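Z., the sequence and structure:
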Amino acid sequence: MSREAIHREVFRALGANLSYSRGEVLGFPGSFLDREVFPEEPFLREMPYLSCLRENPNHIGCHTLTQAEVAFAGTQRLEVELLRICAEEIMGAPAGGFDGHVCGGGTECNIEALWIQRNRLRGGGAGEIAVIHSEDAHYSIPKACDLLGLTPLPVPVDEVTRQMPPGALRERVLGARARGVEAFVLVLTMGTTLFGCIEDIDGACRVLDGIGVDARIHVDAAFGGFIYPFTARENRLDFRHPRVDSITMDGHKMLQAPYGTGVFLVRKGLIEHICTEEASYVHGKDYTLCGSRSGANAVALWMILRSYGSEGGKEFLGALLARTDALCRGLDAAGIRYFRDPAMNVVTIRAGQIPPWVAEKYMLVPDRHGAPTWWKAVVMDHVHEATLARFLEDLAAR
């Protein structure tokens, strides 16, 4: 969509919302942003996202499932369209076969996914539930297990491939089952935090099938969800795989959206497992962890996707991969070892090959502070060819 069309659509949506400044509103415990601190400047009429922030719509509830607060139906409609793009066009869900919402980020999405599986399995009579994940999984997975009373089951990864070896996965699951674990959930990552690794869904399923474990799958695509489906030849970690129940995506990473634009997607029929019936004063009840949330952030994400479109997104991401390729060619020429998936913009280098002053200068991220064994570089939009050239020059001078 053109910039003008996007602006018209956002202001049309705001016009369909309740306006605290135009209506006589007594029931809502919220309002527009404070006028003394955030005055209503004339330029806001030309700035749709800032106007949304000023109007402060609350997107509490799950708008793909039920009608939520009618006061904000205009911007909620844009959120539903955003979710359709993410679920159907990017992640292969059947038409109308999903629910979801925009929330604070990937951690919240991962917690909600495991919350759904816990309630689903315990509703079926399961006792102890284990969450299988690689040791490279995001820290939000053990955090979710701690909050939800689930058993984390981390599996060591191969040092070269960063995948869970079949033997290690089999041993961990059989050991848990022998200890009395009755049900399993499998978390796989599309772009692990440190390595950008795409975890192997087919290999994991073969192991679980071989030992008779029927584990449903949550895909943590917080980093990879807005790059890998566009750059990979084939994406197996999406709703086209029959075992995938839910997916996490994060707009505030690859899409350069404001922080607080996590996207939670789940197959139709599952989000009912976390309905909070006690939220009787909320129109349509609540099916989220966060409750009240910013409608402005959902609109920002919709604006970005509508502005780029599929071809624009591929062009943008292709440019990032070309720069990442150039970085890897320089590392190869210097004889420096690293890990990188060719469809991702993450390059992780052995710590012994990078002087500490170089890592500090370029703000590389370690696997652990104090005694790092790996340093991570991410080629984002602000990382230009000149920056990469200086980085390689500094490495050559080590």
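The chain has three domains: 3-55, 70-294, 310-396. Residues 310-396 form a domain with the Aspartate Aminotransferase, domain 1 fold (CATH 3.90.1150.10).

Let me know what you think.
H.
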